[in-house]
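> call design_seq(struct)
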């Protein structure tokens, strides 16, 4: 009867619980009866009832926003592999993308309070985090992981950390060796799934999310290339300094964890060949190198010294803050007439000031040592460059035969030039001589032709001027006639002055 009830629940589209979940029913959920659509109609969900992971997926993933599609994603859609292959693959890809994005956002459950961005830990915590109020656990989540593992999207962390071959080689993803026990176990799982319904038991993890690792690596390399490098020390980091410098390349609020860092460094070393790692030291590849040079003892010492300088500087900042606080507290106590408290604050200030002076001097010494070590490393780099340049010049000088070889070549060139000039003179002497008188006669003819041409042009200009003369003469005669006429008219006009008129009036008056 128990077997029959589980079979009926599977036929109704309700995912059956795994044997491990039946042993502890209170740890999971109590699924309401009915199909997914019936449960959705009776029990409408609210975002406040969702887990953090489900709420993130519902908010950021387009495929999970439609309620009908959400019911399909949580249901047993394995039968679509035969009836609707495209829909089956679409559901698998939707779940895979949602898990990748959720891991990058730091909302997947991890070990304790740690949220990894590059690693997915499978287990009951992940199943409970994906539990929906209305649709329960995702029924085909195991198939999603199996498909992602098969395609190389999710890689077991153990294989990722131990493999020496780059993941981009075709030989990376191989089918695991199956023993007789494995075959029997697979057959049992298949039979149990067909009889009891699909199992929610997830593959044993953890798994590395390859897409997130590649995105983080690409961002780190871009930031490193964009940053100006003026010293050899700019290429060297300790692991804590590397994590502090590049920890927020994927998420500004949640940096990558120490586990994520180990996975990421393996990818940068093995697959990208962008840096070298030795214990606690990370060294980027130089621009002139085809492969990153191994980490040396000097590199490790430089990274440790840089960390020591940073720690001392952080300690100095805390001590400065403590000195300021105790000084303010002492002043406040004096104002309140609390002499005992004021003396205690002053003692604390003296102790903090003494420690501050000590760490300040220590920090100056460490910083000076780091600068000297950095200068020595830069000197080594410059000497190596000068040595390489000297070797290149020696090779080129050897190709030309040195100074003696160049002198021989120049002597040969001068000799051949003299021979060429001698041959040219001989050829010129053997040619027919030129008659200079003929050249003079031809030159005289050219001068004569040019002179005749100029005379013709001057004659034509003179003829044009003469043709214009009659018209000019006639115009001048007309102007003279007009001038004479105006003069005669002016001579006939009599102008009388006022004095003459007054004299004439006085004579006409009677005595």
């Amino acid at each position: 009867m128990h077997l029959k009830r589980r079979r009926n629940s599977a036929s109704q589209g309700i995912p059956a619980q795994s044997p491990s979940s039946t042993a502890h029913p209170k740890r999971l959920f109590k699924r309401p009866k009915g199909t997914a659509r019936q449960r959705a109609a009776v029990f409408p969900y609210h975002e406040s009832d969702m887990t953090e992971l489900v709420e993130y997926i519902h908010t950021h993933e387009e495929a999970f926003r439609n309620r009908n599609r959400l019911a399909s994603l949580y249901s047993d859609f394995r039968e679509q592999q035969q009836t609707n292959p495209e829909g089956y693959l679409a559901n698998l890809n939707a779940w895979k993308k949602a898990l990748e994005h959720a891991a990058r956002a730091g909302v997947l459950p991890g070990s304790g309070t740690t949220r990894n961005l590059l690693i997915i830990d499978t287990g009951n915590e992940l199943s409970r985090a994906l539990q929906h109020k209305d649709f329960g656990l995702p029924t085909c989540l195991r198939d999603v992981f199996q498909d992602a593992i098969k395609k190389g999207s999710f890689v077991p962390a153990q294989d990722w950390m131990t493999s020496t071959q780059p993941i981009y080689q075709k030989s990376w993803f191989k089918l695991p060796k199956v023993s007789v026990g494995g075959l029997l176990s697979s057959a049992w799982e298949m039979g149990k799934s067909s009889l009891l319904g699909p199992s929610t038991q997830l593959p044993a993890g953890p798994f590395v999310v390859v897409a997130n690792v590649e995105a983080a690596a690409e961002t780190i390399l871009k930031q490193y290339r964009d940053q100006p490098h003026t010293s050899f020390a700019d290429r060297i980091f300790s692991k804590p300094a590397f994590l502090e410098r590049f920890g927020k390349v994927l998420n500004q609020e949640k940096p990558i964890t120490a586990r994520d860092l180990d996975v990421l460094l393996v990818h940068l070393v093995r697959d990208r060949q962008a840096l070298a790692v030795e214990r606690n030291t990370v060294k980027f590849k130089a621009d002139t190198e085809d492969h990153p040079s191994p980490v040396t003892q000097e590199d490790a010492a430089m990274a440790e010294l840089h960390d020591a300088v940073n720690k001392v500087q952080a300690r100095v900042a805390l001590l400065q803050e403590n000195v300021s606080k105790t000084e303010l507290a002492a002043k406040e106590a004096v104002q309140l007439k609390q002499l005992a408290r004021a003396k205690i604050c002053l003692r604390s200030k003296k102790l903090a000031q003494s420690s501050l002076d000590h760490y300040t001097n220590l920090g100056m010494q460490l910083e000076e040592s780091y600068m000297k070590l950095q200068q020595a490393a830069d000197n080594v780099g410059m000497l190596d460059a000068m040595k390489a340049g000297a070797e290149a010049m020696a090779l080129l000088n050897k190709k030309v035969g040195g100074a003696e070889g160049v002198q021989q070549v120049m002597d040969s060139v001068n000799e051949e030039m003299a021979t060429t000039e001698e041959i040219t003179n001989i050829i010129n002497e053997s040619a027919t001589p030129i008659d200079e008188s003929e050249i003079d006669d031809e030159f005289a003819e050219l001068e004569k032709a040019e002179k005749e041409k100029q005379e013709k042009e001057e004659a034509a200009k003179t003829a044009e001027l003469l043709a214009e003369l009659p018209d000019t003469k006639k115009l001048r005669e007309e102007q003279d006639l007009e001038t004479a006429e105006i003069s005669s008219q002016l001579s006939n006009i009599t102008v009388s002055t006022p004095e003459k008129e007054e004299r004439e009036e006085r004579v006409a008056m009677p005595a």
